[in-house]
Amino acid sequence: MKHHVEGMLWIISFLSLIVAAMPTKAYLLVVAVVWVGSTVIVIPLHFYRAWHRWADVPNKQQYAAWVGFETIATIVLIGFFIYSMSPR
Asked: How far is CA 57 from the centre of its chain?
């Protein structure tokens, strides 16, 4: 079960976005809290596990380059999201 936690959190995150897009807006605040909570947990968990796998992979340079690119792209995307949502 421990290995499936990340997958379940991704599913919860994506399903909550689908539910939020449905015409019924009765529980939108609950869905938003579930989405934010699962996303805040799953993104750092993904990178934590990815960087800890680095010692076990045979192609360390390529793996580090790819996970580094993923990390930088995610940080830039989150930064852009925060910047676009902040009042100017």
From this structure: 23
- Per DSSP, the residues of 1-30 read -GGGHHHHHHHHHHHHHHHHHSS--TTHHH
pLDDT by residue (tens digit) across 12-60? 888 888 888 888 777 888 888 888 888 899 999 989 999 999 889 999 9
Q: How far apart are CA 77 and CA 74, in angstroms?
A: 5
Please say if the pLDDT value at position 1 is more than 70: no
> How far apart, in whole angstroms, are the C-alpha atoms of residue 20 and residue 85?
18
Number of domains in the chain: 1
Domain that holds residue 68: 2-85
CA distance 79 to 68: 16
